[in-house]
Amino acid sequence: MAKRLNTKKINLNPQYLRRAFILSVPIAVIFIGLSFFGFISTKISLLCFAVTIVSNLLLIFPISSELGALRCYIQALAGGTADEAVIKLSEKDTRELAQAITAVHKLWALKNDTLEAQTLSDAAVFDTLPDPILMLDSEGGITNFNRAAELLLGKNILTHSIDRLFSTNIFIAAVEKVLKGRSDSESILFHAPEYSNRRFYAHITKLPHHLKGRAAAVVSFYDASKALSLEKMQSDFVANASHELRTPLSVISGFIETLQTTAHDDEDARDAFLGIMKEQTEYMSTLIDDLLSLSRLEMGQNKELKDRIDLHEVIDDITQALKIKAFQRSISINVNELNHIPKIIGDNQQIHQVLQNLLDNAVKYAPENSEVKIELKTVPEIPAKSGQNIAAGRAVSIAFNNKGPKINKEDLARLTEKFYRMQIHKDMKIKGTGLGLSIAKQVVLHHHGNLTVSSTAYNGITFTVYLPVKQS
Ligand SMILES: Nc1ncnc2c1ncn2[C@@H]1O[C@H](COP(=O)(O)OP(=O)(O)OP(=O)(O)O)[C@@H](O)[C@H]1O
Ligand SMILES: [Mg+2]
Predict the structure, then answer these.
(1) If you take atom 3 of ligand 1, which residue's CA is the nearest one?
(2) Closest Cα to atom 23, ligand 1: which residue?
(3) With respect to CATH, is domain 307-468 assigned 3.40.50.1010?
(4) Measured between alpha carbons, how far is 415 from 438 in angstroms, rounded to an integer?
């Protein structure tokens, strides 16, 4: 609240009396001289002196009291408790002085507001930047940081210096180089063991000298781990795909060579070899088909989801298709349809492929003489981890269960990786490309559903496909 300044109050300050007295001294000397030489009487001289003091007082009082009020006004303005409009002064000079002071005050208040608004918007922009940013003083102490930096490095960043937050030598050396003025900017890629061993790309830039404040350099970080692991996944994929294709090719070329030389005239060997070669070319063609459909799915070149799919029919079809394979391994397939299953919207051929892959796996990896169970039901919603693009609302779940040893967590998490196959199954020489589950996962995600897997020692392994009843 602005304080009203009272300029009218009469306050006989001893200072005013002193001033009036000092101003009257020359007149007093004149009167004393006149009375000394007998020109006027002492009484008249004293009376004139008193009149002079009173008239000086009357002259000084308004200016001095308004100067006092002006001082209080300036103090109140500085303290932020005065209202510019309330000061009332009667003297022209002090009034003009007050107006000039008010104008300067208004100008500074405006500049201050603009600066404050600018600082606030700069801070907001700084905080919205997705990459962590730190400002450093010349000693490497942290003077400012954005929200992304706080999320990465924790809340008490300001109490640390950069070398306490990061221990990697090449990074510390690069920061030092910039702070000591040996370089204007440095960019490096480094491992940060203290932050889940992530790899950061850091850019350190020296700030210009004319910048006020303590910041001497700015460091921005970019988390390169994801991009690098993507790059590694791509190169692993190429290596795996070429390895998977080279193996049957070398088998085929070995047999061709044998048929051209040692087994040239051996009819039995020729039939057997041709059989194996046919098997290998079939494997290669399946592999290429799988790779192509996977790449199509990953590139988002998906078909439109417009078929109304009756899952009872699909389950019937796939159990028929795998009947002989199951019979050969003495496996019984039992289907349990728990409640009425509504038709779902999707791509009929893709859903067929996924469910057939999962039943094929169950029959292939279940121990001989065991049971494979398929359970079909509706669920109120699809279980999902945060960040997954999954449809909300009612869904259908199709669970495939087969017996087998409990699979550890690490293996379970990797089953849907391309080309990933469990060692026990490779050792058992069970055929497969390791692409079936990755395709299944891609198709299910394209349908805004989910694929989960669980394993227990008692129940074996269960893969569950969730598909939304309605595609939003
Ligand atoms: N029902 C299951 N029971 C036990 N292990 C399984 C089951 N399904 C998959 N696995 C394991 O997961 C791996 C990956 O399965 P995926 O279907 O992707 O490939 P695959 O069956 O090896 O080859 P294919 O491309 O011919 O399907 C398998 O090699 C196997 O080790
Ligand atoms: Mg498979």
Answers:
(1) 365
(2) 432
(3) no
(4) 8
Give 244 Cα–ligand 1 centroid separation in angstroms: 15
Give, for all 472 residues of the chain, the pLDDT tens digit. Answer: 334 444 445 456 677 777 777 878 888 788 888 888 888 888 888 888 788 878 887 877 777 777 888 888 888 877 777 665 566 777 777 778 888 888 888 888 889 888 888 888 888 888 999 999 999 998 899 999 999 999 998 888 888 889 999 999 999 999 999 999 999 999 999 999 988 889 999 999 998 865 555 789 999 999 998 888 888 888 888 888 888 898 889 999 999 999 999 888 888 888 999 999 998 999 899 889 888 888 888 776 667 888 999 999 999 999 999 999 999 999 999 999 887 899 999 999 899 999 999 999 999 999 999 999 999 999 999 988 877 778 888 999 999 999 999 999 989 999 999 999 999 999 999 988 899 999 999 999 999 999 999 999 999 999 999 999 987 6
Residue 407, number of CB atoms within 10 A of its CB: 19
- 129-223 and 307-468: identical CATH topology: no
Rounded distance, CA 15 to CA 21, Å? Answer: 10
Residue 286 Cα to ligand 1 midpoint, Å, equals: 15
Q: Of 352, 356, 300, whose CA–CA distance to 325 is shortest?
A: 356
Kindly list the domain boundaries of the chain, sorted by start residue. 14-113, 129-223, 228-298, 307-468
CATH number of 228-298: 1.10.287.130
Q: Which tokens is 243 given?
A: 């390895």
Ligand 1 — pocket residues by CB below 6 A? 290, 357, 361-362, 365, 402, 404, 415, 420-422, 425, 432-437, 461
- Nearest listed ligand to the Cα of residue 438: 1
Residue 57 neighbours by CB under 8 Å, 6+ apart: 16, 17, 20
**How far apart are the CA of 451 and the centre of ligand 2, in A?**
14
CATH superfamily to which 129-223 belongs: PAS domain (3.30.450.20)
* Number of the ligand closest to the Cα of 415: 1
| H/E segment holding residue 455 | strand 450-456
Find the 277 Cα to ligand 1 centroid distance in Å.
Answer: 24
Give first-to-last CA distance, the chain, whole Å.
Answer: 57
